[in-house]
Amino acid sequence: MISRLRYMFRETGESIRRNPTLSVASVITAAVSLLIFGLTLIIQHGFDNLLSQWEGGVEMIVYVNSGAGEEQRLVIEDALGQQQGVTIESWSYCDVACSLSDADRLFAGDPVTRSQLTELNIPTQYKVVPLDATQVDILRGLRDRYLELPNVYSVQLAEEQLDLISKLQGFVSTYTTGLWIALMVAASLLIWNTIRTAMFARRREIEVMKLVGATDWFIRLPFMLEGLLQGVAGGAVASVAMWFINGRWTAGVEAFPANSGMTALVVVDGYEWRVGLIVVLFGALIGTIGSGTAASKFLDV
After folding, report:
1. Which structural domain range is residue 69 located in?
2. Cα separation of 100 and 94, whole Å?
3. Among 130, 162, 194, which residue terminates a domain?
4. Where are the beta strands (DSSP E) in 50-189?
5. pTM of the model
6. CA proximity to 192, closest of 295, 115, 110, 99
7. How many CB atoms lie under 10 A from the CB of residue 235?
8. Can you give the pLDDT at residue 28?
9. Last residue of a domain, one of 136, 162, 188
10. Total structural domains in the chain?
């Protein structure tokens, strides 16, 4: 077994040495396509952070002054209860812990503002789900009414943010997804062509190996390993580049105004490390598919 593994790695290294230009081109193409793939996942996660406060049909958020007691909040809850079944389908209270969790996402790119929010000063929230038939002008009327209630800090409507965010998310997602798919196909084809060239260059050796009884899989494995390594190398390069770009973007967002609405468009919750692993595994997959297809098709050289 050890001798077979030694043979496989030796033959893979020899094949890469004979075709260094094609191997480097395959790695670069795979890295670029996988980088765009990884950045697409990161961008989508950033938009999810922006939209997280509006999950579950929430279209209005009533922010309550920090320190408001239960009796003081009952006034707000009575006002919400009066509209339940009329203009409001349901509402829920987001306490201090819940509000701090939301702040972790919404101010991910603004650590200075986030550091100033504590259990003592953060506003809590009532998240309101309106009836399906509720019109925007009715929600605006409710907002004006709730702003007059004691201990209400502010009232925010989803329609003021969701339209722009959704359009931007759809635009970015469509074009980046199309681009990485096209480049992924190109990377797979380039790996396929690299393996084909390597097998053609060693056709006499392959003929001799067949004559002495070598199985097809014994011959294929070094070439498939070559494609796998090219895909993994491309994924590793893409992951490093993605982490660097995400770090620079995060540092840049910190300079944005706190009220720009863009501070949640960063990923600092560890998701980028999971994406890096996905990118490497995806690179291994396209490398294996490209090389495996070529090794099977051109085995009879």
Report:
1. 53-162
2. 10
3. 162
4. 60-64, 88-94, 124-130, 152-157
5. 0.67
6. 295
7. 29
8. 87
9. 162
10. 2
